[in-house]
Amino acid sequence: MPELKPGPDPELDATDRRLIVATQAGLPRVSHPYHAIAEQLGIAADEVMRRLQRMLDVGVIRRIGAVPNHYAIGYTANGMSVWDVDDARIDELGMQVGALEFVTHCYRRPRRLPDWPYNLFAMVHSRNREEVAARVAEIAALLGDACRAHDILYSTAILKKTGLRIAG
Amino acid sequence: MSEAARSGRSPAAQLDEVDKRLINALQGGFPLIAEPYRQVADSLGVSEAELLQRLDSLLERRVLTRFGPMFQIERAGGAFVLAALRVPEAGFERVAAQVNAFPEVAHNYRREHELNMWFVLATATPQGIAEAIAAIEAATGLPVFAFPKEREYFVEMKLHA
What we know:
The complex is a heterodimer.
Chain A: H1 14-23, H2 33-41, H3 45-58, E1 61-68, E2 77-85, H4 90-99, E3 103-108, E4 120-126, H5 129-143, E5 147-161
Antiparallel strand pairs in A: 2-4, 2-5, 3-4
Helix pairs in contact in A: 2-3
Chain B: H1 3-7, H2 17-25, H3 36-44, H4 48-60, E1 64-71, E2 79-85, H5 92-100, E3 105-111, E4 117-123, H6 126-140, E5 145-147, E6 151-155
Antiparallel strand pairs in B: 2-4, 2-5, 3-4
Helix pairs in contact in B: 3-4
């Protein structure tokens, strides 16, 4: 599993940033979408494709494709499972949790003691809460005695969802 | 936002088999060629016009929230932090409105926990995060618990329609 490189891409230039701003809301749905963007930016379509490919290669772009609304495609239960994992073993175990088919995001984050003892976050989307709970039990089994405590925070409302934007 | 999305318990949208194949096929690897939709349409056995029309419809119905490049904001020089608030139940709606009013707040979810409001801050620079947190604390009068990621173990779209 590749680890994404941290920090900003040093080669990102002003044209790349204009390309990000022009495409972050989505690609045009026309036969020649890269030509449409090229026209808007005043550069060649080949350059648009070459720059997007480079940004994919270095991880500025994770992927190009569709972002489903998980509620609309049936994943109506969304549980953020959080775990207090032994610091000496969290990286080894975090990789294993992140590789589970049903875990869509998995991060190590700081504890906020005494309010918050958890340092591993694994997002589990399923069709109902029973399924989320069963999958969380699988994670618990995987973590074994390296985990001191855990919880599941179910979402009960989306208060805002605009997607990530950088200033244009 | 629809009532169903607001409740977080919406039933699944009505999708036919072609829609499902399209959603599953389009989650990554969209080609960087002159006529990418035509290539995807060919691989799915539909016309380019039908693919574009279905894609428009899925976006219109909010089955898809977006179609295009998904950026790793930190690699583009920006910053991205998960944060939480412990909001008194009586003031929940007021605080939600205050928090949502910040353009730096990209997502905001209500969750069942003592820390009951979880949102993602996205800013063009890392310094922007600290400024946004201070501004949210000033607006709401509540301490913000910030949970910057220290390590990412995997993030991939693995949901199947």
